[in-house]
Structure formats: C-alpha cells, structure tokens
Amino acid sequence: MSRRVKCQDTGEYSTSDCAYRAVNGKYWSSEVAYQQWVKNKEWRQKSIDILFEILGYQSGMTVPGVLWKNFAKYEKMGYETVYETIIGERKNIEWAMQNKEFKSEAGLISYVCKILENHMMDYYKTIQAVKKQKQINEAMQLPEDIEIQNKKQGSRDISRFLED
Q1: I want to staple 106 with a disulfide (CB 3.0 to 4.6 A). Which of 41, 64, 81, 163 is the partner?
Q2: Rounded distance between C-alpha atoms, residue 19 and residue 11, angstroms
Q3: Which of 49, 112, 45, 125 has its CA nearest to residue 81?
Q4: What are the extents of the domains in the chain?
Q5: What gap in Å lies between CA 146 and CA 100, rounded to an integer?
Q6: Which has more confidence, 118 or 5?
Q7: Residue 15's beta-bridge partner residues?
Q8: Which residues, in sequence order, are bridge partners of residue 27?
Q9: What pLDDT score does 91 carry?
C-alpha cells in the first residue's frame, strides 16, 4: 500500500510508489532529479573548498553568514558555474585581498561575492556553449560498423540518355 510523501525537489505531494526513494530515505520526483541534486551538491562543496582556500579559512572555522546567503543565490545559476568563476577569477580575488583594506570580514566576503557575480554570466555562457557543442558532437557520431559508401557519378555528357 502506498502512502503520501513529499518530494524534496518540487515540494509537491505524491505517493510512495510513484516517487523515487533515495539512499538517504527522502523522496524525489524522479531518479534524474536526485542525481542532479547530488551532482549540484558536489559542485557546491568544491566551490566552498576552493573559496575557503583562497580566503584562508580552515574547516570548522566560523564564517560570516554573508557567504552562505550569497551561495544560496548562486544555486539558480548552478554551482559548476560558481566553481569555474572562482577558478577563473582567483587572481582578481587574491589581488583585492592584498591591495584593498576592508573594515570587516563581511566586507571582504561581500566584495569577493560581487567579483563573482560580475563575471558569473560569462562563465555560464561558456559552460552552456561547451555542453551544447558536446551534445551536437555526440549526436553526429556514426556507429563504427556502418561504412559510408561513396557513389561516383558517371560522366557529365548526355550520351547515356541517347542510347536509343
């Protein structure tokens, strides 16, 4: 007998026989949605780790809430984009940390987040273009067992039509 469950990704109610039950015991609308959430979670952790490394934080340290609020905003863009932006703008972030003076740690983090926000759309477009090109290339690949036979066209004269 199925029971009523709430899907984590959509927030809608469904039955346990229709929804996908993940390893953690929570229900998702589909297995694809769960796999996307896991992938996004991994990219988020990579992004946080690289940003902590740049800012000089160690795991377990108290971080201002400004960072977590900004990371929540970036979820719509995707954490893969955030990671690529952090990697690409690392020199700018390090330069700002060395040459600018900030009154508080929150000011530094806000400045770093603004750097990321200003460049994130460029990296998003690049990532999307690469994904689209990869999709096109995969669609164009022919199976190896199919041979393409080229047919040569005969001569260009009209003698073959005048056989009568």
Answers
A1: 64
A2: 12
A3: 125
A4: 40-138
A5: 62
A6: 118
A7: 4
A8: 7, 21
A9: 93
C-alpha to C-alpha distance for 115 and 121, rounded to whole angstroms? 12
Q: Which long-range contacts (CB under 8 A, 24 or more apart) does 133-142 make?
A: none
Three-state secondary structure of the chain: CCCEEEECCCCCEEECCCCEECCCCCEECCHHHHHHHHHHHHHHHHHHHHHHHHHCCCCCCCCCHHHHHHHHHHCCCCHHHHHHHHHHCHHHHHHHHHHCCCCCHHHHHHHHHHHHHHHHHHHHHHHHHHHHHHHHHHHHCCCCCCCCCCCCCCCCCCHHHHCC
- With CA atoms as reference, report the closest residue to 33 among 48, 54, 14: 14
Identify the bridge partners of residue 20 per DSSP, sorted by sequence position. Answer: 28
Please check the confidence at residue 95 and state whether its pLDDT lies above 60.
yes
Residue 107 burial class via C-beta count within 10 angstroms: exposed 0-12, middle 13-18, buried 19 and up? middle
Which amino acid appears at position 5 of this protein? Answer: V
- Say whether pLDDT at 20 is over 90: no
